[in-house]
Amino acid sequence: MDWELLKKLSETRAVPGREDAMRDVLREIMTPLVDELDTDIMGNLIGMKKGAGDRTVMIAAHMDEIGFYVKHIDKEGFLRLQSVGGFDPRQLFAQRVIVTPGTGEPIPGVLSYSTKPTHILGPDEGKSPPKITNFFVDVGLSSDEVIKRVSIGDMVTLDRACVPCGNTVIGKCLDNRVGVFVMIEALRDLSSHEVTIYAVATVQEEVGLRGAATSSFVINPDIAIALDTTLACDHPGPAEEDTVTRLGEGVAIKILDSSLICHPKLVDHFRAVAQAQEIRHQMEILPRGGTDAGAMQRSRGGNASITLSIPTRYIHTSNEMAHRDDVEAAVQLLRRYLEDSHNGDYRF
Fold this sequence. Notes:
Radius of gyration: 21 Å
Largest sheet: 11 strands, mixed
Distance between the termini: 38 Å
């Protein structure tokens, strides 16, 4: 497992609609792994690996991350933001960010909240729930310098390194760079396969599964597999019945989320492969949230769709955490399924 690659993917900046840097990184990596590689008008990076049979399998792993666009520059040079993706504002206090102009060098900044410092707060102040709209970015420059270097629509991302932590890895946007990583590692390990594989790094998942919708319409696969993270709520706070998945207990085979009910015969096939190959796995029901599979399942006349999930703590924060064993299990299960996918009968 090339963990340095995961670090590079995590630290690359790419919010919905601004996936250029991530696409450039992936184009270089994926070129030797597929027979054809193309980019569509939406920006999806589509690799095709030929098989001997007629069946087609589409793998979708979204390459965008939650972040912000600059929407206003005030007279003092502070930046106001438009979020792209679902942040929990309680997790955003005192974060560092990177502003990426259309031209010029990236600019570091501080994401701060429009409130008094705690030292001078009154007894009844500071008790309201935080709102995204009350955050701003301070880049430490005069207003004239800010106006010269920053434009409305520039990308703003959280600034966080991807580092090992015990048996886990932590970093920003493991949702979903770890899914992209699993797709790449599975392609590298793949041996014989009869199906034709479309490996797609999709765009704009965090704002409505948009890239998966357009790319799956064109590809029209027989089988669609999304690779994404899911909640691992095995930490203080959530009730036991709300855990969803646990870190270190294997790749999650999704049963349903709020975007799709996975094809039951495809779920059974994945579970059978995992059991036969002794790949550690767990079953997942996510009550809220969706993945690219939700868009792929409804494309054209539909297809057999499923999501393979990497359990992740602290999703949609700057310190997302995934267990190395779960990532490896996801790679192995995806690889083994692709080698056996021609045997699946998903007819009702």
